[in-house]
Amino acid sequence: MPSSTRGSLLPVSAAVxxxxxxxxxxxxxxxxxxxxxSVLGVLATAWPFLAGAAxxxxxxRAWRAPLGTWPVGVVIWISTVAGGVLLRLASxxxxxxxxxxxxxxxxxxxxxxxxxxxxxxxxxxxxxRRS
Length: 131
Prior knowledge:
This protein is mainly alpha-helical. It has helices at about 5-30, 40-60, 70-90, 95-130. Helix 1 packs across helix 2, helix 1 (about 5-30) packs antiparallel against helix 4 (about 95-130) and helix 2 (about 40-60) crosses helix 3 (about 70-90). The longest helix is centred in the C-terminal third of the chain and has 34 residues, at about 95-130. It is elongated. The mean pLDDT is about 90.
C-alpha cells in the first residue's frame, strides 16, 4: 500500500476507534444501569458524546496528528465530555456530578489510553531498531 494511502487511513482509523470507544462507554453505562442493550438505546446515550468528540476533532485539527496525546488527545477527550454533558443537558437528560466524574475518568482511559499505548509501541519499535 502506498504511503500516501496509509497516511490518509490513519485519521479515519483513529476517528473510528474514538467512536467505537465512545459507543462502548455508552453501552457499559446502559448495562450498568440496567436500561437494556438495544442499539438505538446505546446510540441515544452516545450521540451527545460523539458530537462532542467530532467538535474536538475539528478544534484540535486532529487529522494532522490523530494519535497524538497532547494536545490532540486531550482536546478530543475534554470536548467529548464537555460537549456530551452540555448536549445531554440541552436535550432534557440529567448529568449528575458522579456521572460527569465517571465520564471524565472512563473517557480519559479510553481516548487517551490507546493513544498513549500507541506512543509506547512506537518508542519500543524505535529503540529496538537502534539496538
